């Protein structure tokens, strides 16, 4: 994991912001942690500093925090943007992941669980709180269409490894196929599942029961 040095927390509740700061200090010990309480303040911070990690609340006093995701990822495509929220519904989750968020964590998790999930995301593991992954998995499994998987067995194997955090190169090696073959499979997976990122692909793997969300 590349430890972030400059972190921005966007959170309007002071006690929650302090809790997030404590989680970051305990898990990552970044050199600098800034805080913005609204969209306007966040945009000023982002214009002045090149952050390598953004923790982003959604329900801000002057708008939806999700509006920052695309701008942040456009300016800093390699820097993780992790949503920290109380919204546990699929609409908010999918919207944020499609906008480019690298993770989606619930603030009602325990500090230990939140910290574990945060470091897991930065290590490349599936980008969801265990609690929300379990809820979505339960919701999906109650859908009669859940057994309808458009992937071939080989594509399913690759998706499972990718969702567990392996790179395409390492997944190809484990499956004993070439990197180019694996990349072709991954392209087909994205098209079949109608996803655009590893984060969305990982979520689909959870939904399909290929990866244990805990």
From TrEMBL:
Keywords: DNA-binding, Phosphoprotein, Transcription, Transcription regulation. One of its GO terms (molecular function) is DNA binding. Residues 6-122 form the Response regulatory domain. SMART domains: HTH_LUXR, REC. The keyword Acetylation does not apply. Residues 144-209 form the HTH luxR-type domain. InterPro entries: CheY-like_superfamily (IPR011006), Sig_transdc_resp-reg_C-effctor (IPR016032), Sig_transdc_resp-reg_receiver (IPR001789), Tscrpt_reg_LuxR_C (IPR000792), WalR-like (IPR039420), WH-like_DNA-bd_sf (IPR036388). The keyword Cytoplasm does not apply. Gene3D superfamilies: 3.40.50.2300, Winged helix-like DNA-binding domain superfamily/Winged helix DNA-binding domain. This is Response regulator transcription factor. It comes from Alloalcanivorax marinus.
